[in-house]
């Protein structure tokens, strides 16, 4: 499939897909160059990019994803290392969640103060 079809199926834009390819996140299983130098993407590329998208949304960096995929491809990803890595990511997510909750609480207090001022002016 051409890149515009892959973009539609994954919700990613073509420059992002090309960036992932440049970074080594897509390999020969996912993309081939035709004689006319056009890229031809496989169905496997769709699932692979959706996985990358989900993992990135969970807080993984491109660098971390590259390491995990490389180790997994080489059958070097040890179960204990994977568990430790996932636990670490979950703790980071909890930390970010607490920070967002604190920010939301601050904004709510600021909004309450502004609404109170507005009510005072209206009376």
From TrEMBL:
It comes from the Bacteria. Transmembrane segments: none annotated. GO terms for molecular function: DNA binding; DNA-binding transcription factor activity. Residues 69-103 form a coiled coil. It comes from Paenibacillus rhizosphaerae. Residues 1-71 form the HTH merR-type domain. This is HTH merR-type domain-containing protein. Keywords: Coiled coil, DNA-binding, Repressor, Transcription, Transcription regulation.
């Amino acid at each position: 499939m051409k890149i515009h079809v892959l973009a539609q199926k994954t919700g990613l834009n073509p420059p992002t897909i090309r960036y992932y390819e440049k970074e080594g996140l897509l390999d020969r299983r996912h993309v081939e160059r035709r004689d006319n130098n056009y890229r031809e993407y496989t169905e496997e590329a769709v699932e692979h990019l959706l996985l990358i998208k989900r993992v990135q949304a969970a807080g993984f960096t491109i660098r971390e994803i590259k390491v995990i995929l490389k180790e997994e491809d080489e059958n070097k990803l040890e179960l204990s290392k994977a568990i430790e890595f996932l636990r670490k990511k979950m703790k980071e997510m909890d930390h970010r969640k607490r920070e967002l909750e604190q920010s939301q609480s601050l904004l709510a207090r600021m909004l309450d103060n502004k609404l109170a001022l507005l009510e005072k002016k209206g009376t």
